[in-house]
Each structure stands twice: as C-alpha cells, then as structure tokens.
C-alpha cells in the first residue's frame, strides 16, 4: 500500500515536472487518435444513417456485420493490418509499417464499427416522423441530413466519445503497427505496457492518470451538453 | 405571401402493396397486401380535396407517396409539361409538395428554431428573422416564439407546421387528419389557415374521417376503398361543378372506367 502511494505521488510529480519525454508520448497519442476519429467520423456516420433510413437488400446483414466487428479484438485488427502492410503484403510498397500512419489506419479500423453501430442506433432511436419531417421541410437532401443530425446529436456525440475512448486506450494494434518507437510511435498505452514490464510504475501511473482524466473530462462535457439541451416530453 | 402560379399535377396508375421480406431479399407474395391499385389523382392549385376512407385503407400511404416520401411500386406523374416516372419526378415533388403529419413532429429547440428549418439556403441569413416573425404572426404564434416546440399543444403544433409550410411555400400541401383530437377553437384556427393557403393558390389534399368539419373548405371529396380512388358527390359540396354533376343527390360513387376494369 505504501509503495502504491509513493508511486502515485511520484507519478503526479512527474506530470508537473514538465518531463519532455512524457508529454511527447501524450502528444503523439492524442494526435494519432484525433486524426483517426476525424477520418472515420464522416463515412461512419453516413453509413449509420443509411442503415437506419434506407431500405435495400442486405441491410440487416450489413448491420449484423458491423455489430460483429465490435467484438473483434484490437490485436486481431492489428495482426490483419500488419499482414497487409508488411513487405510481402499487398500494401507493402507503401512502407507504412511502424509509422504513425499505420497506427492511424489501425485506429480507424478499430473505431469505425463502433461509430457505425452507435450512430445507426442514434438515428434509429429518433421518432419515426423525424426523418420524414426533415425531408419534407428541407430543400435538398444535405439540408435534411443536417436537420436530423442535429436532432440526434447527443447519440452521435456518444458514438464519437465511445470510439475515441476505444482507440486512445488500445494497446494491441498500436504495438503491432507502430512498434513502440520513442518520439515516433510510442503512445500512452504502449508506453504504459513497456514501463510496467520494466518495473517503472511511476511513468505508467502518470500516463494512466492522463487517460482517466481525459475520459472524465469527455464524459462530463457530454453530460453537460445533454443537460443543457435536455429534451422535454414529445 | 405571394400567390402561386396555379399548379396542375396528375398522378396516374399509383400502385402500392406491402409484402413481408425474408432476410431483406425475398418478397413473400402470399402475405402481400394491395394498398393502392392503379389509383389516379389530379391536384389543382386553389382546390381543396378531402380524402376519406376507413382506417387502414391507405390514405396515409397515398399521401406519403404523393409527397415523395414513400416509393410506390409504380406511378407516373404529369406535371403539365411532361410525364415522368415517380423516381424521376421525386426531386420536383419534394420541392413542390409538403406533407404534414396528424401530429406534426417538432424538432428539439424553440418554435423559431423549428421555423428556421423551413427556410431555404438562400433565405437563411439576414432576412430570416423578419420572415420568421411574419410566419409567427401569420399563424398567431408570436407569444410562443421562444417556447420549446416539444411543449406545445396539438393545435399549436399544427399551426407551427402550417407556418413552416407558409415559409416553404409549396404548391401542394398534403395533410393527414389535421384537426383530429382538437378542440373547437384550435380546429377553427387550423381551418382558417388552410383557407388562406387555398386563397393563394395552393392545392390542398386533406385525409380525414371528418367530412363535416371540412364541409365549407373542400371542393371535392374522394373515397379510398379497396385500393381505388373514387369521387363522391355530396349535395351542396361541389359548389363549382356544372348542374349535371351537382344534381347527384346524397352519395354516388364514380370510379374511373380503368379502375372498374381492373377491379373486375
């Protein structure tokens, strides 16, 4: 217990000491995950929207497909992309393996099913009249889409946060695709895994505090926004 | 509000049936139910048509097809200039036709916010507050401008929806039971607004069970039965029809020859 307290105190001291290496790891982590979520966001929300409102053969099959992808472990996603990006793989010529781009690709692949499944749920949870009303009011399909997106904005924000939470804290794909190279591909989860294996818990705890604080801030912001726009009865 | 150039749209051979689909691919024809069978309908600017029919007869389905919100199995649309398939005419329909639910859906936000949605891209901007003020005044909703639209009563929601239509200025307005579950005062207010639309040349198609309430507003009454649309001539309703037609006392049903043929 005493050693845990000491480690936490050391970790907090490390955070406030302005340790360049530590803050560089934090910067890389946020940069990669934010890029990945921004790239995945628009196509995933559009697919979620299409699955919710369009009627086409194979729609249910596609919904089941994306729901199944939710259960795929990060390490399997990492392994698949590793094979694709390795020298002998189909995209080996791009020389992306062990770069930040490979990590971004891995995180896109991980967050995409979450964003699709949760945005689909958000659109489908809207009142059945909402989409028809948006279509009948709007002058063009994009205007209608923006109206309905605003209506289900809390569900979409929730999807975004869940997707972000999944990729910022995952270690399997980042380790396999990034290689944990200092000042290049070492992010928070891979650094925690490495420091723990070395027995240096204080840096691991310091990075863990950052992850937990970020999750807390994001959840609080969502709750604040939901509270502000609390819906009344319909 | 400016007066429309009177529209004249003919919807012909509208067919729609609902069938169960297995795995989203295979249609089960055995359980399919015919909703509309070669239904024809003509909408003219400034004319108010009352569409009656039993529950489940397909009134709402027809209205949603006419509004471009539901795909029919087949339908052709004559705009006066050309004859188009439903798919090709869909964009035009969506711009010119507006459909209002029995209980209009209000989006999250104030009444003003809900009205803003009805403004087109070019109208949104500096002039939009003025236009919205005019719409609120037109629908007698000025005192409700900043109220959350989800807190409004049924009658007020219907007036917000009509104010949205006033802003969008469609050529055709389709209304599904617009005065259902309303008190006398709200019903009268809604009917007054509908008359204003009629006066400016908007074609109105109202689906309702309540013939008496629209007795003074309607020009024509149609009955939807067994997937067919039939015209009903009520005494004193068809004010502008010639003597021959208006001489039909009480109710007489005249399905088109084609409909009769297909029914046999």
What is this structure's SSE topology?
The complex is a heterodimer of chains A (234) and B (264).
Chain A: H1 2-16, H2 20-53, H3 59-69, H4 74-85, H5 100-124, H6 128-137, H7 141-151, H8 153-168, H9 172-178, H10 188-198, H11 201-228
Helix pairs in contact in A: 1-11, 2-5, 2-8, 3-5, 4-5, 4-9, 5-8, 5-9, 6-7, 8-11, 10-11
Chain B: E1 8-22, E2 26-44, E3 48-52, H1 59-66, E4 74-78, E5 83-85, H2 86-96, E6 97-100, H3 111-116, H4 128-138, H5 154-168, E7 172-176, H6 184-199, E8 203-207, E9 220-225, E10 228-232, H7 243-246, E11 253-254, H8 257-263
Explain what this protein looks like in three dimensions:
The complex is a heterodimer of chains A (234) and B (264). By secondary structure, chain A is an all-alpha fold. Chain A has a single domain, classed as Orthogonal Bundle (MetI-like fold), CATH 1.10.3720.10. Chain A has 11 helices and no strands. Chain A has helices at residues 2-16, 20-53, 59-69, 74-85, 100-124, 128-137, 141-151, 153-168, 172-178, 188-198, 201-228. Chain A is globular, with a radius of gyration of 21 Å. The mean pLDDT of chain A is 91. Chain B is of the alpha/beta class and 264 residues long. Chain B has a single domain, classed as Rossmann fold (3-Layer(aba) Sandwich). Chain B has 8 helices and 11 strands. Chain B has helices at residues 59-66, 86-96, 111-116, 128-138, 154-168, 184-199, 243-246, 257-263, and strands at residues 8-22, 26-44, 48-52, 74-78, 83-85, 97-100, 172-176, 203-207, 220-225, 228-232, 253-254. In chain B, strands 6-7-8-3-9-10-11 form a 7-stranded mixed sheet, sandwiched between helices. In chain B, helix 4 packs across helix 5 (154-168) and helix 5 runs parallel beside helix 6 (184-199). The model of chain B is unreliable at 238-264 (pLDDT under 50). The interface between A and B is medium-sized, with 27 and 28 residues.
């Amino acid at each position: 217990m005493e050693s845990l307290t000491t480690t936490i105190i050391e970790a907090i001291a490390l955070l406030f000491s302005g340790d360049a290496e530590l803050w560089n790891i934090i910067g890389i982590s946020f940069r990669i995950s934010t890029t990945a979520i921004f790239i995945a966001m628009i196509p995933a929300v559009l697919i979620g929207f299409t699955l919710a409102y369009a009627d086409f053969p194979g729609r249910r099959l596609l919904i089941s497909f994306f729901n199944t992808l939710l259960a795929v472990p990060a390490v399997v996603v990492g392994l698949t992309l590793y094979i694709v990006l390795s020298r002998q793989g189909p995209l080996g010529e791009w020389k992306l393996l062990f770069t930040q781009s490979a990590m971004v690709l891995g995180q896109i692949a991980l967050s995409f099913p979450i964003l699709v499944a949760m945005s689909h749920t958000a659109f489908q949870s809207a009142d059945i009249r909402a989409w028809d009303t948006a279509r009948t009011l709007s002058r063009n399909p994009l205007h209608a889409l923006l109206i309905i997106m605003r209506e289900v904005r809390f569900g979409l924000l929730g999807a975004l946060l869940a997707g972000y939470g999944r990729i910022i804290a995952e270690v399997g794909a980042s380790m396999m695709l990034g290689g944990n190279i200092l000042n290049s591909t070492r992010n928070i989860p891979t650094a925690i895994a490495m420091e723990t294996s070395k027995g240096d818990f204080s840096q691991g705890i310091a990075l863990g505090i950052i992850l937990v604080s970020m999750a807390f801030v994001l959840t609080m912001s969502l709750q604040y926004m939901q509270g502000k726009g609390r819906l009344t009865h319909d | 509000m400016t007066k429309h150039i009177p529209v004249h749209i003919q919807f012909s051979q509208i067919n729609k049936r609902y069938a169960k689909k297995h795995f989203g691919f295979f249609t089960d024809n055995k359980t399919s139910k015919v909703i509309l069978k070669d239904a024809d309908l003509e909408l003219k600017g400034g004319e108010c048509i009352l569409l009656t029919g039993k529950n489940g007869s397909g009134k709402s389905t027809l209205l949603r097809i006419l509004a471009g919100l539901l795909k029919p199995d087949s339908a052709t649309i004559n705009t006066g200039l050309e004859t188009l398939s439903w798919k090709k005419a869909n964009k035009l329909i969506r711009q010119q036709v507006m459909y209002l639910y029995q209980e209009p859906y209000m989006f999250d936000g104030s009444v003003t916010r809900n009205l803003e949605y009805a403004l087109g891209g070019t109208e949104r901007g500096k002039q939009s507050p003025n236009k919205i003020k005019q719409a609120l005044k037109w629908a007698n909703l000025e005192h409700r401008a900043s109220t959350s639209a989800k807190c409004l009563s049924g009658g007020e929601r219907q007036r917000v929806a009509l104010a949205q239509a006033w802003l969008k200025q469609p050529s055709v307005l389709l209304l599904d039971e617009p005065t259902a579950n309303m008190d006398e005062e709200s019903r009268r207010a809604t009917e007054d607004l509908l008359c204003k639309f009629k006066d400016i040349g908007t074609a109105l198609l109202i689906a309702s069970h309540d013939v008496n309430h629209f007795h003074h507003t309607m020009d024509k009454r149609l009955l939807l039965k067994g997937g067919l649309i039939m015209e009903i001539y009520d005494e004193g309703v068809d004010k502008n029809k010639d003597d021959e037609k208006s001489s039909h006392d009480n109710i007489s049903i005249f399905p088109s020859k084609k409909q009769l043929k297909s029914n046999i």
